[in-house]
Each structure stands twice: as structure tokens, then as C-alpha cells.
């Protein structure tokens, strides 16, 4: 009933906004816009059929209160896919869990999580000394918390792993939150304006944290925002049992309701979009035929509303907004510009290191290897983390309360998405220019000089585009902060009088001109001049490396944008220096895993120490791990095997039976049997003494997957199990409950084939 009521009102708003958005789109198409032209190229074909990241971590299974080892795959669409183990992934078995992470928060502390859980059900707090709702068997938890949907609990063995997985999960959340496609010039603005108009009709102004995910997820959040408090009031007092049980039950109830709301919302929204799409040809025909009359009618209406509203709006701007614009802008500029500067620095460092390694290791063969990695730099969560975390400094402090900004997360995530896009544009432009030059080069020296020259050209283009993108971001952020504040201030004196302007709109044009939208445009004009002036002054003073609007960078590469229209570059296929042709299946496997196997210089993840073999710069053959020196002093245990063995000796003694110990909810750590441990990965090999000194340059030792049997292509594997937009994160369990994992026979890979529990 609540869903039907909310969606009924929303769909009315959407139909109104659809006509306005269609008119604006056609008008923009006809009149065009003379904005500055981007200097960097934009990649047309993204990371389809690639894996962003993959690895092992432990998940808490609520049904049986056990911690289990899971193999997690993050594909190009940033859904989280959890398999029983790596073997199940390679054998194309169904995944255990699919998670769409839109709207989730990543927590790295159980205390943070318990605080949120305690506040979700007022009056229900476990007494001190009682066991909390969740215990973690390690000191490195990773919890996905959502205000309405189910929660997901993970943990890893080391702080370094926790940092990596946190970066990966945050990248997933960032990408999934940005679920409304900007390529849609009609549906997207119609939807976001309809959501804003609906919330303003309920006296809710300002930014909204739950405007995240695809359209159906956003609308489900809209319904739950109103429904959940009513459910809490009616159901909360009826919950029985201890505080922990009541909290757990409430989370399950909230998730079940959210799923029901999601299904109903999807049906409502699909129906209204289908109806609007059906009416679109007739509406578009009317717009194109009567464009001049519609514009004249709208300008007449705007002049009448302006005469009524503008004097009041200007007083409000002068007294309540103008004095704070420069403070807001400075608060936005500092962390954002630091983030973009870090993007530039990371790009410069990666290309420079690549160039140094080519000097030391030689030639085109190494260039191909490094360019395959560089082409995915923008999508590497760990390497981009130093750029993203600059935005964590964004604080609006007192301004946040004054302008009713609930959270700065909206601005942080938007800036971070811009950073990733500019990094990818810079990388794509670099590889396009380098690809063009390769045919003219002779020898290693020519190659290195050419790389340096192209790098300098790309950095100049990056500086210009970075300035343009940041200025636009600052203007949009200032409008997002100030316009809702002004609308709320003016509502008591202006909103009630707007109905009288309806008679000024011709009935034939009523679908394309709305009084409410025209009123907001007038309010926007009242503050736009001050915002533009503030950003312009910041650029004139060269603050944070912003360029003046009058500075137009003429395209020094007139054919560059034509190059960007060509077929995507496949470095491995075009310039592979392998003596023998690589089998198609192996080549396909490597191409699809290229992002997930990029590791930091310090080594591989503890769970996957044996999954990759280090290559010597001078030899294409995998290096055989050396036996550890028996006389060497014992080192700290880095691999899972060493940790398990050390803990097993302490907690279970030397006479441990060869049987898996199962304990619930992390009250004790479970250790694998000796039979299981023997399949674990050997420790990482020590650096070889025979490697020449010149090969020990930073980033000089590439990481390559170990040879293995032919693996099915990712597209085939993902065909039925990719997390669709519909997914809000559900358990996928085959009939009969938990499967027993396939036994690993003679494998040297970590513990992918072994079911691990705590």
C-alpha cells in the first residue's frame, strides 16, 4: 500500500518532468553548446570481459553462524560475486552470493558496526558484558552495512589485505552508486528532477545520501525512507528474545521488506517509462514543429515569475548565501585539487617507471607487458586509492548545518568519479599517441625519448582538462548546496503564489513548460552570477592550478580525435614478442584477468602466494621457487599456511587430528587439518642472488599468472551469474543447502580447493 502511494505520486512527477527533459534535449541538440573542447581522448570501449579484482577472504554465514572461505570476483560491472572457492569459479559452478553494493557503507571496525546496529532499533541495546550480535575471528573485519538491505560480514588475516579489500569494496560502492546512466539525455534528468520534486513536496530539501544505485534502487530507498519508521514503530515492540536476537530479527525483517518493495517498485517504474517511451515520438514531433512558439511562451512565463520572485530572491542571496560562497568554494577546492594533482603524479610515476624499466630490461617486448598493465591503471582500486583518499579531507563544518547538507559523501564520490575518468582519459591518450609513433621508432633510445616526449604532451592536455572539469564540478557543487537552501527560504512567501502563473501557459505546450521548473530556473539565475564570479576569481588568482576561462587551448593534435575513433589497441596481440604463438585459450584468459593479477611491488596476497610465478627479466620461463635456507633466522609468517600452523600449535597442540574443527561465530579460531595444510601454498621465494643489479629497478619485475589448464572464458562463465541491476544482494544456494567443496588433488595453489571455517 505504501509503495503504491509513493510511486503513484512519483510517477505523476516523472511524467511531467519527462516532457520538460525531452524539450530541453531537443533544444540543446538544435542550438548546441559552445563549451571548451576536451584535449584528452575518451575511451569508447571500456573493460568489458575483464576482471577488476579477485581473491580469497572469509565470509560469515548467518544461517549456520560459521565463517567460511570464499573466492571473490569483481567483474567489469563492479558487482561482488562470491564463489565457494577458486575451483568452483574455474569450473563454472553457480556463485554463492551476488551483491550489488549501491547504498552500502564499508566498515573496518566491529564497534562501528555495532553502533549503527544499536541506533537502527532504538531502545534495544545489549547490556554490557553480553556477547554482541557479531564477533570477528581476526582483527581485520570488512563489513558491508546498508540502512535497509541485508548486511555482509567478511574478514581477512592481515592489515594489508584489509586495506586492499577496503579499496576494492569502496570502488564497487562508488561505481554502483553512480548507477543512473549519464548517456541518457532525457530519462536520467527526468528521473532525478522527479525525485527532487517529490522530496520537496514533502518539505525535504538539500542533498540526499540514498540517491544511489539504478532507478529502481533509488525509488526503493524513497519508499523505505517513509515506510521503515512506521514498521519500526509497529513491529519493534513485538520483537521477542535477547537484545542480540531482536536486532538480528529486525535486520532480516528490514531486508525482506526491502526486497518486496524493490519488486513492486520495478513494476511501477517499468510501466511509467514504457508509457512515456510510447508517447515520445508524438511529443518530439510537436516540439520540433513548434520550437519557436514554445521558447517564446516559456520566456514570457519566466519574465512574469522573475518580476515576482527575483527581488525576494536577491535579498535572500545577499543576506544568506553571498557571504559564504567563497568559504564553500575554498573548502571544495583544496581536497579536490589535491586529488587531481595526485592523479597526475600517479600517472607520471607509472609512465616514468615503465620508461626506466624499458631502459634496463630492453625493448618492445617489455613495453607490451607494461602497456597492458598501464591501460587499466584507472581501474586499479589500490593504485588509485591515494587519489581518492584526498577527498576524505572535505569538511564543510558549520556550513553543512547552515545549508542543510546532510553529508559530504555526494560531493566526495562525484569528485572521485571525475578523477578516475581523467586518469583513464590520460592513459588512453598516451597509449594512442605511443601506438601511432611505434612504427617510426628505431632502437631502445628512440623508444624512451618518444615515451618522455608523449608523456609531456599528455600532461599538458591533462592540466587543461583537469582545470575545466574541476571548475564545472565546483559550480555544480555550489548550486547543489545553495539552491535547495534558497528554495526552502523562499517557499513560505513564493510557492503558494505560483498557481496563478499556470494560466500563462498554452494548453498545447503544457507538457513542455512547468511553472515549478521555471520558478527554480529564476531562483538559480539569482545566485548563478555570484557563483560564476567566485570560480572565475579563483582561476584568475591561479589558485590550485585553475586556468582562466579566457584561456583556450587550441588543439595541437588535429588528428588526435580521429585516432580515438579507431579500433581499440590490443598490445599483446599486435606486439607480442613471444617466440611461439600463444594458445588462444591462454591468451584470452590472460587478457580477461589482466587487472586482477596486477599486484603491488611488495608481493602477492597471502591467500594467493602460489597462484602466480615471478618472471626473471631475462627469461620468459617461470622461476621455480627456491627452498628456504634452513640456517636463516625465522621470519614473521606472511602466508596463510604459516599463520595456520603457528596458531594450530598454540591452540590445538602438536597432536591435532586430521579433521576440520568447526566452531560458531568466531568464539575460537578453527584450524585446518594437516591433510588440508599440505595443499597450501609454499612461502614466497626469496630474491635470487643471481639476478643482475640493473634488473632490480622499481616495477621491473612483472607478475604473470602461473600456467594452468584451459579456463572457460569469463563471458561464458558470467552469462548466467552476472549481478544484474535487479540484484540487491541475495544468497544463491543450490538445492540441498551447503555443498561439500571439491577435493583438491595435488594442487599447489593456496587453499582455493579447501573449505575453510572458523
Automatic annotation (TrEMBL):
Family: Belongs to the Niban family.
Domain of life assignment: Eukaryota
Signal peptide: none
Biased composition (Polar residues): 741-758
Pfam name, any one: Niban2
Region of interest called Disordered, as start-end residue ranges on this chain: 572-591, 613-758
Basic and acidic residues composition-biased segments: 639-652, 687-697
Listed InterPro entries: Niban-like, Niban_1/2/3_dom, PH-like_dom_sf, PH_domain
Species, as recorded: Podargus strigoides
Name this protein carries in UniProt: NIBL1 protein
Residue ranges of every copy of the PH domain listed in the record: 50-174
Stored Gene3D superfamilies: Pleckstrin-homology domain (PH domain)/Phosphotyrosine-binding domain (PTB)
Amino acid at each position: 500500500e505504501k509503495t503504491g502511494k509513493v510511486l503513484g505520486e512519483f510517477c505523476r512527477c516523472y511524467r511531467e518532468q519527462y516532457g520538460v527533459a525531452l524539450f530541453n534535449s531537443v533544444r540543446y541538440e538544435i542550438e548546441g553548446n559552445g563549451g571548451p573542447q576536451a584535449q584528452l581522448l575518451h575511451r569508447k570501449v571500456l573493460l568489458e570481459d575483464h576482471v577488476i579484482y579477485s581473491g580469497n577472504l572469509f565470509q560469515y554465514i548467518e544461517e549456520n553462524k560459521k565463517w567460511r572461505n570464499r573466492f571473490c570476483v569483481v567483474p567489469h560491472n563492479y558487482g561482488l560475486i562470491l564463489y565457494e572457492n577458486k575451483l568452483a569459479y574455474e569450473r563454472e559452478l553457480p556463485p554463492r552470493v551476488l551483491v550489488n553494493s549501491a547504498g552500502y557503507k564499508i566498515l573496518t571496525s566491529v564497534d562501528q558496526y555495532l553502533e549503527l546496529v544499536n541506533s537502527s532499533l532504538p531502545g534495544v541495546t545489549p547490556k554490557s558484558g553480553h556477547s554482541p550480535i557479531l564477533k570477528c575471528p581476526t582483527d581485520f573485519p570488512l563489513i558491508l552495512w546498508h540502512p535497509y538491505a541485508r548486511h555482509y560480514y567478511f574478514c581477512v588475516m592481515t592489515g594489508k589485505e584489509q586495506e586492499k579489500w577496503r579499496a576494492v569494496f569502496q570502488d564497487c560502492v562508488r561505481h554502483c552508486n553512480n548507477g543512473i546512466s549519464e548517456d541518457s539525455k532525457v530519462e536520467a534528468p527526468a528521473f532525478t528532477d522527479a525525485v527532487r520534486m517529490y522530496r520537496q513536496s514533502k518539505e525535504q530539501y538539500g542533498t540526499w545520501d540514498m540517491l544511489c544505485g539504478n532507478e529502481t534502487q533509488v525509488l526503493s530507498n524513497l519508499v523505505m525512507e517513509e515506510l521503515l519508521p512506521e514498521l519500526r514503530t509497529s513491529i519493534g515492540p513485538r520483537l521477542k528474545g535477547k537484545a542480540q536476537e531482536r536486532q538480528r530479527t529486525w535486520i532480516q525483517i528490514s531486508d525482506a521488506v526491502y526486497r518486496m518493495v524493490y519488486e513492486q517498485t520495478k513494476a511501477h517504474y517499468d510501466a511509467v517509462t514504457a508509457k512515456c517511451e510510447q508517447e515520445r515520438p508524438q511529443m518530439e514531433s510537436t516540439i520540433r514543429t513548434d520550437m519557436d512558439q514554445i521558447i517564446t511562451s516559456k520566456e514570457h512565463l519566466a519574465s512574469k515569475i522573475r518580476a515576482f520572485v527575483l527581488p525576494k530572491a536577491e535579498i535572500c542571496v545577499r543576506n544568506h548565501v553571498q557571504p559564504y560562497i567563497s568559504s564553500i568554494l575554498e573548502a571544495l577546492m583544496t581536497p579536490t585539487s589535491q586529488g587531481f594533482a595526485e592523479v597526475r603524479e600517479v600517472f607520471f610515476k607509472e609512465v616514468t617507471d615503465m620508461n626506466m624499466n624499458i631502459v634496463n630490461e630492453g625493448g618492445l617486448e617489455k613495453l607490451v607487458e607494461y602497456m597492458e598493465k598501464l591501460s587499466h591503471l584507472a581501474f586499479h582500486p589500490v593504485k588509485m586509492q591515494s587519489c581518492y583518499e584526498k577527498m576524505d579531507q572535505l569538511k564543510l563544518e558549520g556550513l553543512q548545518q547552515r545549508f542543510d547538507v546532510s553529508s559530504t559523501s555526494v560531493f566526495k564520490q562525484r569528485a572521485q568519479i571525475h578523477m578516475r575518468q581523467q586518469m583513464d582519459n590520460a592513459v588512453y591518450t598516451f597509449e594512442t599517441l605511443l601506438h601511432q609513433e611505434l612504427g617510426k621508432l628505431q632502437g631502445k633510445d628512440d623508444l624512451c625519448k618518444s615515451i618522455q616526449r608523449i608523456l609531456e604532451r599528455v600532461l599538458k592536455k591533462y592540466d587543461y582538462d583537469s582545470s575545466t572539469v574541476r571548475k564545472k564540478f565546483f559550480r555544480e557543487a555550489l548550486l547543489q548546496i545553495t539552491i535547495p537552501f534558497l528554495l526552502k527560504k523562499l517557499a513560505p512567501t513564493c510557492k503558494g503564489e505560483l498557481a496563478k502563473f499556470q494560466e500563462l501557459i498554452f494548453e498545447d505546450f503544457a507538457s513542455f513548460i512547468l511553472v515549478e521548473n521555471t520558478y527554480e530556473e529564476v531562483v538559480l539565475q539569482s545566485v548563478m552570477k555570484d557563483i560564476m564570479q567566485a570560480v572565475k576569481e579563483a582561476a584568475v588568482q591561479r589558485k590550485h592550478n585553475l586556468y582562466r576561462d579566457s584561456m583556450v587551448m587550441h588543439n595541437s593534435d588535429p588528428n588526435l580525435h580521429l585516432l580515438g575513433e579507431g579500433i581499440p589497441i590490443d598490445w599483446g596481440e599486435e606486439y607480442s614478442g613471444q617466440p611461439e604463438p600463444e594458445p588462444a585459450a591462454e591468451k584470452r584468459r590472460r587478457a580477461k584477468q589482466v587487472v586482477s593479477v596486477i599486484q603491488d611491488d611488495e608481493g602477492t596476497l597471502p591467500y594467493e602466494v602460489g597462484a602466480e610465478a615471478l618472471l626473471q627479466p631475462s627469461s620468459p620461463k617461470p622461476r621455480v621457487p627456491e627452498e628456504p635456507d634452513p640456517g636463516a633466522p625465522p621470519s614473521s609468517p606472511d602466508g596463510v599456511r604459516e599463520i595456520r600452523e603457528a596458531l594450530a600449535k598454540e591452540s590445538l597442540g602438536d597432536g591435532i587430528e586430521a579433521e576440520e574443527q568447526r566452531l560458531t561465530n568466531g568464539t575460537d579460531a578453527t584450524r585446518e587439518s594437516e591433510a588440508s595444510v599440505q595443499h597450501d601454498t609454499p612461502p614466497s621465494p626469496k630474491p635470487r642472488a643471481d639476478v643482475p643489479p640493473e634488473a632490480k629497478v622499481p616495477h621491473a619485475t612483472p607478475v604473470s599468472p602461473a600456467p594452468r589448464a584451459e579456463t572457460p572464458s569469463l563471458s561464458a562463465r558470467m552469462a548466467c551469474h552476472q549481478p544484474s541491476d535487479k540484484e540487491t544482494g541475495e544468497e544463491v544456494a543450490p538445492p540441498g543447502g551447503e555443498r561439500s567443496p571439491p577435493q583438491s588433488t595435488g594442487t599447489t595453489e593456496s587453499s582455493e580447493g579447501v573449505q575453510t571455517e572458523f
